[in-house]
Amino acid sequence: MNQLGKARYLLHITGTHGIVRRYFVVNGFDGALTMLGLITGFLFGTPADLSVTINACLGAAIALGVSGVSSAYVSEAAERRLALGELEAAMATDLLDSAHGEAARRVPMLIALVNGSAPLLISLLIMLPLWLAHAGMPLPVAPLHAAILMALLLVFLLGVFLGRISGIPWLRSGLQTLLIALLTAVLIYLFTGQ
Amino acid sequence: MVSVKKVVLDVLKPHQPNALEFSRAIAAVGDDYHVTLTVLEVDESTETLQVVVAGDAIDFEAVQNTINDMGGSIHSIDEVEVQSEADAG
What we know:
The complex is a heterodimer of chains A (about 190) and B (about 90). With about 190 residues, chain A is an all-alpha fold. Helix content of chain A is about 85%, strand content about 0%.
């Protein structure tokens, strides 16, 4: 069994597929809205140099990634240890060397990786127009506007993904998450706009 | 040489992997293994099974390791069928 197959098997026997998917969406959404908030804050506030915006966004993205990895690992390791202990009690045997024991050790790492990488990757994608503009590449719209459009697109795609999982129409689900992002931008404008 | 042709095992296992995955993994231990699995009892976290493994020469240790790897444990060997064969040459 290859590493991907092994990971899928361990997630399957522990019934944690849904948790991974949920963490991906929840933290991906966190990443997208945090970047949207930062960038709209820069857009509505006093104009700042692009490198300042990039540094602020990159700092937030790294913090989100580290926070995602560490918080998920600590909580999931505790949950998996508890689940393994309960299973061992029911089986009246030590399961440390079985697939369930391996799952208790590896699944928290897998979940932590997804939980941390989702906001980090989404944040980096949103920052892509800022980097391109900073590198001197001409963009069809201003870099901050392009990054906001990228954030809205990714939030919409997360909604589409949720719609496909839950079986509700993808367009409706995508528009719902997009509406939340637009509402966030309006709130930021109301509090920071000049 | 004595070959094990059939074993009937009483096994306790967690709900996952399920009965189909469990029996497939046992069958994959040998080239000609025939596995019949019957779920005798289902509890909150575990299932009690009767697993019948038949084959030309069953490697019992390998079957036991596979069951243990999946989190199962053999409670008893309820039936065996073995056959002695003259060594070739």
